[in-house]
Amino acid sequence: MIRRVLLLLAIVAVASTVRAEDRIWAALVLGCPNTSEDPVPKELEPFIGGLKTVFGYKTFYLLNAKEKKIREGTEEWIVPRKQIFLKVRCTDRDKTSYTVVVELYVKKQLLVTSEVRLAREAPLYIRGPNWGKGRLVFILEVR
Amino acid sequence: MKNFEERYTAWLDGELSGEERVAFERELPDRDAAEKDRAEWAKLRGMMRESLAPARMPHADFVNSQVLAEIERESRAAEARQPARRGFLPIGRLAFLGAFLIVLATGLSVLVKPWAGASGPLVSEIVETHVANPTLHTYAFQAPGGRGAVLWIEEPGYIPANEKL
Questions:
Q1: In B, which residues are within 8 Å of A106 by CB distance?
Q2: Number of Cβ within a 10 Å radius of residue B10
Q3: Where are the beta strands (DSSP E) in chain A?
Q4: CB–CB of A78/A66 below 8 Å?
């Protein structure tokens, strides 16, 4: 009996943890004006329409994507590339969204600090610097 | 009139009255052998009395008091255990039931969309923005046709193409 109770309590703890830990997905993409025959990366498919509408580029390449746990009070460095990265600090959480402070660093210099209320599955796009013939764009989404 | 054997047995047991005993002893063919019989019988009877006597336990009062105290203790312990058994559910089952309900509730909350019916915003929004360099300008707006938000940094610089990211 005691073993069963302990097992159930462990399941409860795990289940609570899983429920409590949403994840923040971050991708660094490069938007280019030229058209490409390459298929859109599967991870970018949900965003490709929004990216084209907002930024006007014809092609988007996924440079890197990271996923981190997000909880109130956590601070995560999201470093898809050494030259451009983010620090995300979660300051608050309610039923529908997380309030995060996002810091964008370019060449290790802080460029912008922004407080954002991130709803689940409602991405934040950050227009970054040019690189070569394209523009770097960050996508952040809570999942 | 008793026969010889009956009177002999009574003589061995010392149950003959004075005259009867004297008369019987005169009848005995071998008085010495009969006296020997009587002495052996008396000895045997004494041994039988001793062996059939109830056994006496040494320190019987102390042992009895200890046994009674032990019975009393066990009765009290049994009484103390009884309320839990008589209650609605034993504590183990209650804990099991509680844990099961929590698991069920957690499972349902995970299966059912956790933010369904929530009253808060379902779109992302930029609350405020600060720039490190005052020459930079930023704009915040909702992504057209979606629930996303856009942080538009005007002239955020560039990284040369020959520089590895």
A1: 156-157, 159
A2: 16
A3: 22-32, 59-70, 75-81, 84-93, 97-106, 109-119, 124-131, 134-142
A4: yes
Residue-wise DSSP of chain B: ---HHHHHHHHHHT-S-HHHHHHHHHH-S-HHHHHHHHHHHHHHHHHHHHHHSPP--TTHHHHHHHHHHHHHHHHHHHHHHHHHHHSSS-HHHHHHHHHHHHHHHHHHHHHS-TTTT--S-SS-EEEEEEESSTT-EEEEEEPTTSS-EEEEEES--EE-TTS--
Contact criterion met (CB < 8 Å) for A115 and B129: yes
Query: Which residues of A, range 42-71, sit inside 8 Å of B by Cβ?
Result: 49-50, 53-54, 63
Q: Do B96 and A63 touch (CB under 8 A)?
A: no
User: How do residues B102-118 score in pLDDT, each as one tens digit?
Assistant: 888 777 766 655 555 55
Percentage of chain A beyond pLDDT 70 is 86
Q: Does the model's ipTM exceed the 0.95 cut?
A: no
The answer to whether B163 contacts A83, with C-beta atoms less than 8 Å apart, is yes
Contact A96 B156 (CB under 8 A): no
CB–CB contact B159 A12 (8 Å)? no
Does the beta carbon of A14 lie under 8 angstroms from any beta carbon of chain B?
A: no
Q: How many residues are recorded in chain A?
A: 143
Chain B contact for A19, CB < 8 A? yes
Count other Cβ atoms within 10 Å, centred on residue A84: 23
Give the pTM: 0.59
Smallest CA–CA distance, residue A70 to chain B, in Å, is 16
* Stretch A11-28: mean pLDDT: 71
Contact B126, A99 (CB under 8 A): no
